[in-house]
From TrEMBL:
Keywords recorded for this protein, A-Z: Magnesium, Transferase
SUPFAM superfamilies registered for this protein in UniProt: Nucleotide-diphospho-sugar transferases (SSF53448)
Keyword Transferase set for record: yes
Coiled-coil annotated spans: none
Protein name (database record): NTP transferase domain-containing protein
The organism of origin for this protein: Parahaliea aestuarii
Biological classification of the source: Bacteria, Pseudomonadati, Pseudomonadota, Gammaproteobacteria, Cellvibrionales
Length: 306
């Protein structure tokens, strides 16, 4: 059974955030008649298990969007801090302070604000699948099979993503997290990982490797896993099937979950969704242009969206 859960939407534009389409806060980018932030909020409002919704970002920019969404009162807006993690923690402690109940087990759904293909159906699927696992941190992912429809065609450009290539499947982070923050002992490391999330940047790759190596008790194991994942992705990007198949066979889902749990000092695990829309975000001009060009085609594959 899916329990009621509050949601946090990260819509900041400081720190590692990137401007797209000439707009400093990309959550305000329009696609198909709605801003990206509107699409996320409208989808969340359709999910019965979602209670309060807290948006964190620049208040003066986001207030007109939030004020225009019905029903009024379910969405709260907080001013942003300097990093995505600080924004998350500000929203979480705000929810704690204004609610009763046991603090240690308080669970929240965390999403980005730039998911143009978000749907209520996929949000429900994620929460349902999380309820079937005994975890304190559920990390949402989608398999490549669900994302191939966004790839380039013979005549149209597309969106080709990076993956975690595991022995079982190639998975993409889908911007959905269900977490009990006070059960995550090494929360500060999440802030570091978020800052290095653009893994096409060689500097970020090296900093990630350095930080993993420094993790007490699992440093070398974590570094080896990271290198296997990077080599598998190289084979995937270059079209070297034997290379890709060899290196992905060295990393299982259980390996990834064990290392993540050790590094974060919690019970962490992968929870898949099958629709794939939440895995599409807007991080660059090219992807935004593709979304505008193929919008109607992409939306036909989604369910229960705004």
């Amino acid at each position: 059974m899916v329990a009621s859960v509050d949601a946090i939407v990260l819509a900041g534009d400081r720190g590692a955030a990137r401007a797209v389409g000439g707009v400093a806060n990309k959550s305000l980018l329009p696609v198909g008649g709605h801003s990206l932030l509107e699409r996320v909020l409208l989808a969340l409002l359709q999910v019965e298990a979602v209670g309060r919704i807290v948006v964190v970002g620049p208040e003066h920019l986001l207030r007109p969007v939030v004020a225009g969404i019905e029903p009024p009162g379910r969405i709260e807006l907080l001013e942003q801090a300097d990093t995505a993690y600080a924004n998350f923690w500000r929203a979480f402690t705000h929810l704690e302070q204004s609610s009763d109940g046991e603090r240690i087990d308080r669970q929240v759904l965390v999403t980005g604000a730039d998911m143009p293909l978000v749907s209520a159906g996929e949000l429900r699927e994620f929460l349902h699948n999380c309820a079937r696992r005994d975890l304190d941190y559920c990390v949402g992912m989608s398999a490549e099979a669900a994302l191939r429809r966004f790839y380039p065609t013979a005549s149209l450009p597309g969106i080709h993503m990076r993956y975690l290539h595991l022995a079982e499947a190639s998975l993409r982070l889908n911007n959905l997290h269900l977490v009990r923050p006070r059960r995550v002992q090494n929360r500060d490391y999440i802030d570091e990982v978020y800052g290095f999330r653009y893994q096409r940047d060689i500097g970020n790759m090296l900093r990630t490797a350095r930080d993993l190596l420094g993790q007490e008790g699992v440093g070398w194991r974590a570094l080896r896993l990271y290198l296997m994942l990077q080599l598998a992705e190289l084979g995937h990007q270059r079209g070297w099937p034997r290379w890709w198949d060899y290196f992905r066979s060295k990393v299982t889902r259980r390996d990834v979950e064990a290392i993540a749990s050790s590094v974060l000092q919690t019970r962490a695990g992968i929870v898949e969704t099958t629709q794939g829309g939440c895995a599409i975000d807007v991080d660059n001009e090219q992807d935004y242009a593709v979304l505008q060009l193929r919008w109607e085609e992409f939306r036909r594959g989604e369910e229960s969206g705004p």
